[in-house]
Amino acid sequence: MESTPRSRPASVSTGLTYVALLLLGAAQGLIGCFQFSRVTDPVPVAALIFCALIFASCLLGGWGMGSPLGALMVALGWFGVSVLLTMPTANGSVIVTNTAAGRWFLYGGAICAGAGLAVSFRWRARRPAGLPRPTPGPGS
Q: What is the 3 state secondary structure string of the chain?
């Protein structure tokens, strides 16, 4: 059984895109863990912005890839880095502290990542029933 030359680069680029989404989530978690504590009076503004950002990233990752796996990759990257940076070190220090801003960042971010993933299941890109499937042209 022969594979078309076009199928391998498409699968490689799709895989690389999923890796990029994982790294995007990890970068958001890394930046968020160090910047979550920016507050305006009693409101943890930065933590709330990071919650909205992870929700939007998960939603757009799932929508852009046409699959909830895109949203899952962003959420896994964010969650992995955030959990890793909340673990205490050998000397007992932590990066994400047990403050209102820290709780908003961790719990709110986890809820927003889960919500973005759940919404991406509902709103994944679908081909309208009347449109025919694209056929490869000559030379592809």
A: CCCCCCHHHHHHHHHHHHHHHHHHHHHHHHHHHHHCCCCECCECHHHHHHHHHHHHHHHHHHHHHCCHHHHHHHHHHHHHHHHHHHCCCCCCCCCCCCCHHHHHHHHHHHHHHHHHHHHHHHCCCCCCCCCCCCCCCCCC
